[in-house]
Specification:
4 helices, single chain, 5-stranded antiparallel β-sheet, 148 residues, alpha+beta
Length: 148
């Protein structure tokens, strides 16, 4: 039994020394525009993390959390889009943001064009937060919404 525990323990509690460095991960922000030539002024974070989770919610999330898995996939697409832009990564982020907004926003808040950007948040030497935009998409017609 002891040998079984020795085999399982590294899988259940991985060593953080596995990573050479931990860098900030990109965040996806979105904006809706009235026309493709417009400038986005109010960027919203896509699926912001909750400020507080109960112990029960944390336990539940350890067993079942498809939104978090999809969020990790989006981070992976965002990292690829930053390092080596591909149409696949661009389409995946755009489609998932559009699908979420279609479900969650009221009809009167919708606009004909969707734009997203990738933002890295890091600390400078003073310890203050610095936001760096690493990618900004072109405005794209919102699926199912007629252009004005």
């Amino acid at each position: 039994m002891l040998s079984l525990i020795k085999l399982l323990l590294p899988a259940l509690m991985p060593s953080w020394r596995f990573f050479k460095a931990v860098d900030p991960s990109p965040r996806v922000e979105w904006a809706l525009l009235q026309d493709p030539g417009g400038t986005a002024s109010a960027w919203q974070e896509f699926r912001p993390r909750p400020r507080h989770l109960s112990l029960a919610a944390m336990a539940r999330r350890m067993l079942w959390n498809p939104r978090w898995n999809e969020g990790l996939f989006l981070v992976s697409c965002a990292e690829r889009l930053t390092l080596n832009p591909t149409d696949h990564s661009l389409q995946e982020i755009r489609c998932r943001v559009a699908a979420e907004l279609s479900r969650s926003l009221p009809a009167d808040a919708m606009r004909p064009y969707l734009q997203f950007r990738l933002v890295f948040i890091d600390r400078d030497e003073d310890g203050s937060l610095v936001k760096a935009v690493t990618y900004q998409s072109e405005p794209h017609p919102f699926p199912g919404k007629a252009a004005a």
